[in-house]
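Quick illustration, no need to memorize.
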Amino acid sequence: MIPNINFTSIASTAFSMPRVGLGTMSLAPSECVSTINDAIMTGYRLIDCAPVYFNEKQIGDAFLQLSVPRTDIFITSKLASPFHRSEHVEPALRKTLHDLSVGYLDLYLMHWPVAFKPVPIESNERGWRDESIDDSDNGKNIDPNVSIRETWQAMETLVDKGLVKHIGVANFPVILLHDLLSYSRIKPAVNQVEIHPYNQQSQLVSYCQSRNITVQAYSPLGTPGYKERDEPNVLTDPVLTDIAQTRGVSVAQVCLQWSLQRGCSVIAKSSNKMHMEENLLLTSQNGLAKTEGNKIAQLTQDEMSRIAELDRGYRFFRPEEWWPDSPVPVFY
């Protein structure tokens, strides 16, 4: 049975979108069509994309085969760092629309608050010939002469033209958001950031909610397929495992429910149909199943407090290590 997934209001904001979305980072191009089709059939209505995932062409092939109206699907993509100059913002978006085979986006995010030196946009073909749009050359390609204000104002014109419905940011700390809000004509609808029990970002969440910005958690399970061998594993944490076993659910479901109860939206990547269905149970039933009779209950305050104690400020995505030749520590 396909759950009835509506576009619901998130936290204290007036912005509406599905609470659980499908992430496409690290989704192999060869798996895109089958995974997107499975997700749509399972009930997913939010698909999160980005040019630097290098699979938007194949995701677009899947969108051409949609079994539901385009207006029923919430599609997000992102502005890559080489296209932050005002004259490059719209061509970059139009390239993404061409790759995804859609006429508009529901949400367009500035992927990182750091500009790179421009690279050519292959506007007449779908997909990218190489990965130069994601190459910082250890930081040497960072362009310090492009302001967030310049980029944001160019993104605002995309809304004016009807090319995107909403705009937002990703990986923005509080101080950059605070500045952006001081001059933005169109306020950011979303701040998509890394959030999981080991990186809870409570002050950022509180600030965003106080300013009516939806917090969207990426890597809500701690990037099990991305982390290095010697890094901590959220999905094997003893506290989370104990809560999951007590309730008869998976650790992944506990992590997602924890984020949802904090008022966040979540982006969870999976190409496994069973895991997709488990994730959507959270929105169709508004809580976690107990072991008997599939009774529904949210995490208790005691369980939320136990999870709060797991915070260690641990990030799996550390741009300062990607850009060692340029001192741009985004989160410090």
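The longest helix spans residues 86-100.
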